[in-house]
Write a structure and sequence with these properties.
This protein is an alpha/beta fold and 249 residues long. It is built from nine helices and ten strands. It has a six-stranded mixed sheet, sandwiched between helices. The radius of gyration is 18 Å and the shape is globular. The structure holds adenosine-5'-triphosphate (ATP). Adenosine-5'-triphosphate (ATP) binds at residues 17, 20, 22, 40, 42-48. It comes from Halomicronema hongdechloris C2206. One of its GO terms (cellular component) is plasma membrane. GO terms for molecular function: ABC-type phosphonate transporter activity; ATP binding; ATP hydrolysis activity. This is ABC transporter protein.
Length: 249
């Protein structure tokens, strides 16, 4: 259930790449526990917006607060502390493919572990039970010691989910998490992602190409077009005409 606490606040946030405004004057507030979909045509600025939200890319102008912090005012060590509470799932998974699954799941600890713990864990994995439990939750318990590149695209995406579970963030950002799987697996993955977000009362912001997935799984839809917010409305109030305008050539 959504609460009133704002987790993410954008006030006229823009991000420029040379002459191009990838994100332009976006203002919105996302509350704790909300599930928000980002929709828009290719190049609309969805990935850029997610990168601003997790602080991997600085904003060019405006004001952005995530978890109560103005990311652009933080020192690197403070920024890393906030980033530990933001889990990101990428379309390309960002997994180390030649390592066993357990190491990729354990990468969720990296913000917390010392360098020594991280290095030691590559030889003798720490927190095996926790990793096993996370894999159980995403339905691939038997893959703990499998090499990551021997998993299917959908299974690799589940490993990325397990890594975020281990990280246990307050905010989950997902950039087209279903892009590499078939429609049936896409439904399953989105259900799983929402279920994981719900049980942990996490806030979810997910960019999607599939409008149906957004309607079915998200409370609210932000429509981005050429970097601008075309609409920001509860999913039930987003009409086919609004969707048509969003994607029109
Ligand atoms: N690092 C960068 N350098 C220069 N331009 C960039 C960079 N990243 C994104 N852009 C530009 O910003 C715009 C928005 O790109 P972005 O990847 O955010 O769109 P998107 O909505 O995620 O697209 P897609 O659905 O195809 O992934 C594009 O025109 C892109 O070319």
């Amino acid at each position: 259930m959504a609460m009133a606490t704002p987790m993410i606040q954008l006030t006229r946030v823009s991000r420029r790449f040379a002459a191009e405004m990838a994100v332009s004057q976006v203002s919105t507030t996302i509350a704790a526990g909300e599930r928000v979909a980002l929709l828009g045509p290719s190049g609309a600025g969805k990935s850029t917006l997610l990168a601003l939200l997790n602080g991997s890319l600085p904003i060019s102008s405006g004001r952005l607060r995530v978890l109560g912090q103005d990311l652009s005012r933080l020192r690197p060590s403070q920024l890393r502390r906030v980033q530990r509470r933001i889990g990101t799932i990428y379309q390309q998974h960002h997994l180390v493919l030649n390592l066993p699954v357990i190491h990729n799941v354990n990468a969720g600890h990296l913000g917390r572990w010392s360098l020594l713990q991280a290095a030691w864990s590559l030889v003798w994995p720490l927190e095996v039970a926790k990793a096993a439990q996370a894999l159980e939750q995403v339905g691939i318990a038997e893959k703990l010691y499998a090499r990551t590149d021997q998993l299917s695209g959908g299974q690799q995406q589940r490993v990325a989910l397990a890594r975020v579970l281990v990280q246990d963030p307050s905010v989950i950002l997902a950039d087209e998490p279903t892009a590499s799987v078939d429609p049936q697996r896409a439904q399953e993955l989105m259900s799983l992602l929402c279920q994981l977000a719900d049980t942990g009362d996490k806030t979810l912001v997910v960019s999607l190409h599939d409008v149906e997935l957004a309607y079915r799984h998200c409370d609210r839809i932000l429509g981005l077009r050429q970097g601008r917010l075309l609409f920001d409305a509860p999913a039930a109030q987003v009409s086919p005409a609004m969707i048509a305008e969003l994607y029109q050539l």
